[in-house]
């Protein structure tokens, strides 16, 4: 039986924290309990700055706990393009920042004694084309790269070329994040879970974080480390695009490849060894698509299984399967720093390389709070507009969002009424002329929602593979009962008038 969870969250013991039940005052309020939030909070607390961290759900359980666990400066075949687009200085800064982050994560884990399956090894990007330009660009930027024989990877596939980065890092991300949280609270920091922040506003010389329950945290500084800044903060919802990837953990009939690999071409296939699965354990991630843009997400998972079956001539049953969401920017560089028109510090657009990019971001955020310069702040500038290509891409993306608004709910309705919604079934239904979203859980309870995103009113799509309501406009995701899973939305879905079935 396949477990619907990342292998990391299924094999980690995460500390638990109480919800915020009283107003607080502190030096810094950090919103978000993923890698960026926890690393930033730990840095600042260790510098003697008082920090309160607020997490809407449980720490480490969203994107950061659903990564591949690769900490590498090899972000696919990107460096020839970055060099051409941004010039040597910026491309070199991006490369150096991420390579240093690999060593920093290793050093943090060892210094804190975090048992998170740390190991070093090579990482490969492979292609059916010629990657010589990529290898030369990466070497020119100071990265540990060289053109390699694709046979080195140990994958039973045909590839024309490959680029190897040596001495990259693997870890168990959920255990690493749990270690960061314990170190942070051990240094005097405070974490409050199940405490969703709905507003961050200027308050005198500082910032006020207001929560869903009405509680307040007043601080001198605020950091929004929430995958995408929530609401309309900084306009980042219109400057990024949401993307969902899928993952499986399997046991092969033979020993699994020990290297990290990723394909240069779509469809993306990213692999790494799975220590918990023994010598035959393998993790495969890919089947990317825009959040809310895939009608059948079960097919995305199946495509990964089919790929494994084809390569190894076998039939595998995944032990775990999961998905993760992240955001990409038009110019392929993250946004980190002060949000335009706001005192809030932000970090977003990690392009699915959040373990390295996010570690860089945490250092920039720490230094901004402390009033120190940081070598990487310019290339990650949160206020930049970007080049002509970036502006054109933003226009194109927002035209697409406009079409999504206009489309409304002209989508396939599963049926007229809710009487016959099967267990495990979800989607859009017609209820006396009104479109409602419905899902019947494994216990038989029917959950109904108004399938309209509470961020800016886009229509939602049912994600059957993950049992979530997803927004293709800006990437908000909701549980079957309407609870917010990922922003920029901060409010749960509204409930329709319920006329049939049990109320969810």
Automatic annotation (TrEMBL):
<dbReference type="GO" id="GO:0004497">
    <property type="term" value="F:monooxygenase activity"/>
</dbReference>
<keyword id="KW-0411">Iron-sulfur</keyword>
<dbReference type="Pfam" id="PF00355">
    <property type="entry name" value="Rieske"/>
</dbReference>
<feature type="domain" description="Rieske">
    <location>
        <begin position="413"/>
        <end position="504"/>
    </location>
</feature>
<dbReference type="InterPro" id="IPR017941">
    <property type="entry name" value="Rieske_2Fe-2S"/>
</dbReference>
<feature type="compositionally biased region" description="Basic and acidic residues">
    <location>
        <begin position="494"/>
        <end position="504"/>
    </location>
</feature>
<keyword id="KW-0408">Iron</keyword>
<dbReference type="InterPro" id="IPR036922">
    <property type="entry name" value="Rieske_2Fe-2S_sf"/>
</dbReference>
<dbReference type="GO" id="GO:0051537">
    <property type="term" value="F:2 iron, 2 sulfur cluster binding"/>
</dbReference>
<dbReference type="InterPro" id="IPR005805">
    <property type="entry name" value="Rieske_Fe-S_prot_C"/>
</dbReference>
<keyword id="KW-0479">Metal-binding</keyword>
<dbReference type="GO" id="GO:0046872">
    <property type="term" value="F:metal ion binding"/>
</dbReference>
<keyword id="KW-0001">2Fe-2S</keyword>
<protein>
    <submittedName>
        <fullName>Glycine/D-amino acid oxidase-like deaminating enzyme/nitrite reductase/ring-hydroxylating ferredoxin subunit</fullName>
    </submittedName>
</protein>
<dbReference type="InterPro" id="IPR006076">
    <property type="entry name" value="FAD-dep_OxRdtase"/>
</dbReference>
<keyword id="KW-1015">Disulfide bond</keyword>
<dbReference type="InterPro" id="IPR036188">
    <property type="entry name" value="FAD/NAD-bd_sf"/>
</dbReference>
<dbReference type="GO" id="GO:0016020">
    <property type="term" value="C:membrane"/>
</dbReference>
<feature type="region of interest" description="Disordered">
    <location>
        <begin position="483"/>
        <end position="504"/>
    </location>
</feature>
<dbReference type="GO" id="GO:0016705">
    <property type="term" value="F:oxidoreductase activity, acting on paired donors, with incorporation or reduction of molecular oxygen"/>
</dbReference>
<dbReference type="Pfam" id="PF01266">
    <property type="entry name" value="DAO"/>
</dbReference>
<dbReference type="GO" id="GO:0005737">
    <property type="term" value="C:cytoplasm"/>
</dbReference>
